[in-house]
Amino acid sequence: MIHLPSGDPSKPAQMEAHVEEDDEREGSMATDLTVANSQIGQLASSLQKSG
Fold first, then answer.
1. Under a CB-based contact definition with an 8 Å cutoff, are residues 5 and 22 in contact?
2. What is the DSSP letter of 1?
3. Are 24 and 38 in contact (CB under 8 A)?
4. In a structure prediction context, what are the per-residue pLDDT tens digits for the chain, which is 51 residues long?
């Protein structure tokens, strides 16, 4: 979701910069979620094997 700062309307270049920053943040969060999901799967598998 894009949150623009309050106040004067941003210039198109500033708006694009905000969009790119949000994309980078969301991409990083997606990567973190994927890694965490993989780790949970490995933990669950280990727990099943142990017993």
1. no
2. -
3. no
4. 666 666 666 678 888 888 888 888 899 999 999 999 999 999 999 999 997
Q: Is the separation of the CB atoms in 44 and 24 below 8 Å?
A: no
Whether 18 and 10 have beta carbons less than 8 Å apart is answered as yes
Q: How far apart are CA 17 and CA 35, in angstroms?
A: 27
Q: What angle do CA 16, 22, 24 make, to 5 degrees?
A: 105
CB 22 within 8 A of CB 1: yes
pTM, two decimal places: 0.57
